[in-house]
Amino acid sequence: MTRALHHLDLWVDDVATAEGEWGWLLAWCGWQREEGKLSWLHDDGTYVFMEHSPDQHGDHDRLRPGINHVALVVETRDELDRMRAESTEHGWHEMYADRYPHAGGDAHVALYLESSEGFEVEVVVGE
C-alpha cells in the first residue's frame, strides 16, 4: 500500500506536556511510539515527529494561514466515545461538545479536540 502522507513534523513549545497529550492520542489511534525517539509510527509507514525548535517564534495559532487541524481515525463509535470520556485526563479539551458526535454534519461521526497549545485534532470513525 502506498501511503498518501510521508510524515508530520509537530513543533511544540512544551515538549513534556505535548508528548503526554499527543502520545496518548496517537496510541489510541493505533500509532506506535518509536524507541528512543519523539516520534510515532503508523502501520502504513507514516510517522509523526515532535520537537521544540530554536527556529520557532510566536505562539501556535491554527486560525492563521497554515494547517488548521489534523484528522485521525478510530475504527468504532464505541472507541470514539471512550476516547471522549478520557480525553480531558490527558490534557485535551473537547470542542463543539454540544454537537457531539455530528459537529461535522449529520452523516459525519467525529470528536474534535484541542491540545493545551491550541492544536486541533479531529478523530473520525472510519468509513
Keywords, please?
alpha/beta, 2,3-Dihydroxybiphenyl 1,2-Dioxygenase, domain 1, 4-stranded mixed sheet, 8 strands, globular, dioxygenase activity, oxidoreductase, Glyas_Bleomycin-R_OHBP_Dase
Fold and architecture overview:
Helix content is 20%, strand content 28%. It is built from 2 helices and 8 strands; from the N terminus they run E-H-E-E-E-E-H-E-E-E. The protein has helices at 15-28, 77-87; strands spanning 7-11, 32-33, 39-41, 47-51, 69-74, 93-95, 110-114, 120-125. The strands form 2 sheets. It has a 4-stranded mixed sheet with strand order 1-4-3-2, covered by helices on one side. Strands 5-8-7-6 form a 4-stranded mixed sheet, covered by helices on one side. The radius of gyration is 15 Å and the shape is globular. The model has no long low-confidence stretch (mean pLDDT 93). This is Glyoxalase. Pfam families: Glyoxalase_4. Residues 4-126 form the VOC domain.
Helix content: 10-25%
End-to-end distance? 18 Å
Strand order of the largest sheet: 1-4-3-2
Biggest sheet descriptor? 4 strands, mixed
Structural class: alpha/beta
CATH superfamily: 2,3-Dihydroxybiphenyl 1,2-Dioxygenase, domain 1
CATH class: Alpha Beta
Q: How many H/I helical runs?
A: 2
Which whole number gives the mean pLDDT?
93
Organism: Nocardioides alpinus
GO molecular function: dioxygenase activity
Domain VOC: 4-126
Pfam family, one: Glyoxalase_4
